[in-house]
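Schema walkthrough. Field components (list of strings):
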Amino acid sequence: SQTIHQWPATLVQPVGSPLSLECTVEGTSNPNLYWYRQAAGRGLQLLFYSVGIGQISSEVPQNLSASRPQDRQFILSSKKLLLSDSGFYLCAWSAPQDYLGYTFGSGTRLTVV
Amino acid sequence: KQEVTQIPAALSVPEGENLVLNCSFTDSAIYNLQWFRQDPGKGLTSLLLIQSSQREQTSGRLNASLDKSSGRSTLYIAASQPGDSATYLCAVRPGGYDGNQFYFGTGTSLTVIP
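Field assembly_structure (string):
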């Protein structure tokens, strides 16, 4: 069976510090991978998605970047965090050919102080 | 671009009541629609997935319906329990060019009162 792992679960970082959030998927190959952000009281905002190694699409201009160094690994990064980067970050995967829907990770609560 | 709306934004019901959550979308050309549950501070848990060729899906006390032509889906919860309290989100996977992306509604926050 497929599983998705996301870490860390919580993170408190000072303004201007770097960020690295990691997401890995097991039990499948060539998944579509996604990073979402959920700000307090707001809906899910798609940040990045990837359909293959090294292929990253960005939905909104921002202080963040994403990379996919391996087939089942998706990393969200920032060189210098802003206060506005605080939020709940969710990784998800989907199978591109059989449309089984999304499966989400457990999320990372990021607080920038 | 697909737009997804969920009404109401919040709902409070007494335990045991049957209830319906609504989801509407602007473009009927979809591949599937998925309902999720989110508990506070947690990730999203998939509840039901309806393919575009299907009209409904059932899981336990949950029943989701899909009417593509009118751009609507409903999630029916029978005999609600306090443990059903959570935020419920629907997500639409469009066909065609945007097929790799899902579009989410802003959710309905459900409170079931014991």
